[in-house]
Amino acid sequence: MRLLKYAVYICFLLVVIMLAATSLLDALTGREGLSAAVYGSWAFAAAWAVLALLAVAYFICCKIWQRPAVALLHAALIIILLGGLATRISGERGTLHIRSERPVNLFLTAENDVRVMPFDVQLDSFFVSYYPGTNAPSDYTTRVKITDGGKRFSGTASMNRPLAHRGYRLYQADYDRDLRGSVLLVAHDELGVGITYAGYILLLAAIIAYPFDKKGRFRQLLNAKKADSARKRKARRRAIVVTGLTVTAAAWLTLTIILARHTIVLHRPPLADGVEAMRALAWASLSLSLLLFRRNAMILVAGLVAAALALLTAALTGGGASSMPLIPVLRSPLLTVHVAVIIAAYALLLFIFFNSAAGVALALMKKDNSLKIRQLRLTSETLLFPALFLLAIGIFLGAVWANISWGRYWGWDAKETWALITLMVYALPVHRRVAWFDADKHFNLYCAAAFLAVLMTYFGANYFLAGLHSYA
What we know:
472 residues, alpha+beta, eight-stranded antiparallel sheet
């Protein structure tokens, strides 16, 4: 079984390396379509298939079914991969150009293949809606007439509101500048979407169930007895905690008022661009430090430093709050939920970085700091579980939103790819069967270095790699 375990983790690491290398080479070489060629290849699909098969074999050997929450979580991931395979095999996606002169039932795929729909679509009207008092579009709407057999009826497709008929979904994609024609994106993938969404639902159920697993590491960490060390820290650092708590609370209240004002002025939560996301990250860091400081007083310091770095980044990259209205594709309730969950995950991972970096620094000192290093490791390990769960939920919320907006739940966009890499990188140390992480110094060193994946996900994918999520 040891060989099987090594095979699983080696294959896991190879997939992560393949994801990262392809994304970076695409950006560094400037070769258009490199990522699409690699991620769309059967060799890439085969790599995931081998990983899944090895993992299933290892799960059986480990009798994973004896831990229902863990079994459900891993089964959900396998089902999501199966959904991706079903989409690859049976899914159809292309563009449909319609005008008012004649009905059409043919759409063109990215490979320039012509596909036939079992019904005709004809443009009834197209119009652009604008924000009041501005020339900024708030929505694009196409009204069509559909002829299916002997029946005729009308339908509407607009941003984030596709038109569905007989398993085909029509999305607003573009329009003719004379406003007498519209370009719709066509997606037909009932099987793949159904399987993938079933995997998302099972994954959410597993995440909810996992904290109640009495044999789970997260439950063990929460129930750990640290009364003696807590009393000693309280006696030594009471004054520091009071001061840090006062400063953190004041900073949190100030930032809360600022964000509330921006929300009122913009008529939406300020989460639409990089600057706003950095402010939200600062607020989340302060909020988490106020909630978690009882476990470790240094969390207050980490929260203040994280908030300061986030606000400094916001000031350097954009300055004041943007008064620009949201582009139509961002006008979705999922924007707030998706970004808020991701920001919370990033804030926790930032705390883990500070904890782990402090542990690494203490390990380099000559005097014995093993107890402090152990405490930092346990704090990081405790935070790692909710960070991973929030990141997974945020990623798959984004996938659902992408399916609603663009007709595909995963497209290997740079931000999607690096978010997945980050999830996979941080998933390794929560697996207790990897003995290397038993040593506190190894765990801290890994988690400190792993934050590079978070930096690449946020800054690299947003500002340096081309993609739908780029803020540059």
